[in-house]
């Protein structure tokens, strides 16, 4: 079952409602015991990096999540700050990240592109993204709201790019670990398609 | 390419939606959740919901309503009304709202914007400035337009940006509900004083007004109340929004005219 991680931040109910519309059963985890039956995980997040990491650390779910994602290779999708949390660290804060994907979160500093990057932008997948962008290869628009982006160590971990002053990685993947900078739960049919794709990933 | 945002702005009063004219008594236009469902179907860019009585009545935000709005919204949501502290802003973001708007409290407590930005990030903090022309110049008003601040909207917008606001919304009290077009002079003054995303509210009465704003400013937020809740010259309540083709045509026309 897809489990949405509820550590007190992010659009948990919006994800749950989106999946309900898609006819996919989901669970919401508020503690380690709720994670036991997860076959896939969604890690939402909004706000600042330190605030989000602080809440996740305090949730008591970190060891169970490491076990599921690293030892058992359960697919996980980090969204917005939830994607940034997959990294080692962020220029926005002092907390350590989850260190699940090799890279750091850096400030989007492109000349002429004012921050935050806010609104609907085109997303260009590098390939079908292991299925995450199936059906979204030629026309994909998503809602962005951020000032920082994920800079991966390996170019191969970049799944999709968007352009704001300069191209940046807006989706990453390392094995079973996926992250998207934009908000699929707030991106109408484009977002619904991506969430459905994540649900049917093998 | 980043697109301009076309944003319905819904005003909440006593749990119902209203639309005001120049901040006066509102006309009842429907139920908030029902409106959100219709805007979902219409794939709107973003939605702004302002509880216009919360601050004036000294009320705290209605978290129950905010939670149900956020859960229902399949587009990004900005909530404002009655937010006076970082704790309230955190709780609202925790309910799944993307952006929290502060207005009266941001003017009355200059440290608030910085405090919210420091804990939630600048992208989550919006400052809404209600401006009115008085004696030939613009002035920011608070508490539903009832209290004059003596502050110039452009200067204050610049201060709010430096404090950590991630977006400025400028609402023209004079244009509110008149459907006679945006106040372009006010918009230009605030644009010149800021670099963060800017959204203009007040006066849009047709998609041409929206196109004119985008032609002048490029990537900007064009917000409207009446335009998206009324239809026809008798102002029948009918929730509406341009479809994908109409929106593309509007943006193309705006690009050509710019």
Summarize the structure in short.
The complex is a heterodimer of chains A (202) and B (258). Chain A is an alpha/beta fold and 202 residues long. Chain A contains 5 helices and 12 strands.
Description:
The complex is a heterodimer of chains A (202) and B (258). With 202 residues, chain A is an alpha/beta fold. Chain A has a single domain (2-200), classed as Rossmann fold, CATH 3.40.50. Chain A has five helices and twelve strands. Chain A has helices spanning 12-21, 49-58, 62-71, 81-84, 188-200, and strands spanning 2-5, 26-29, 40-43, 76-79, 103-107, 117-122, 124-125, 141-146, 148-152, 158-164, 166-174, 177-180. An eight-stranded mixed sheet of chain A has the order 2-1-3-4-12-11-10-7. In chain A, strands 5-9 form a two-stranded antiparallel sheet. In chain A, strands 6-8 form a two-stranded antiparallel ribbon. In chain A, helix 1 (12-21) links the parallel strand 1 and strand 2 (26-29). Chain A is globular. Chain A starts with a strand and ends with a helix. With 258 residues, chain B is of the alpha/beta class. Chain B has one domain: Alpha-Beta Barrel (TIM Barrel), CATH 3.20.20. Chain B is 36% helix and 26% strand. Chain B has helices at residues 32-41, 63-72, 86-94, 104-108, 111-120, 153-163, 184-193, 207-217, 226-229, 244-257; strands at 5-13, 16-19, 27-30, 47-51, 77-80, 99-102, 125-134, 137-142, 147-148, 167-172, 198-201, 221-224, 230-231, 236-237. In chain B, the strands form two sheets. In chain B, strands 1-4-5-6-7-10-11-12 form an eight-stranded parallel β-barrel, surrounded by seven helices. A two-stranded antiparallel ribbon of chain B has the order 13-14. The longest helix of chain B has 14 residues, at 244-257. Chains A and B meet through helix 1, strand 6, strand 8 and helix 5 of A and helix 2, helix 3 and helix 5 of B.
Q: Total number of helical segments of chain A?
A: 5
- Computed over alpha carbons, the radius of gyration of chain B is 17 Å
> Between the first and last Cα atoms of chain A, what is the distance in angstroms?
13 Å
Q: Tell me the β content of chain A.
A: 25-35%
Overall strand count of chain B: 14
Sheet of most strands of chain A: 8 strands, mixed
Number of strands of chain A: 12
Number of domains of chain B: 1
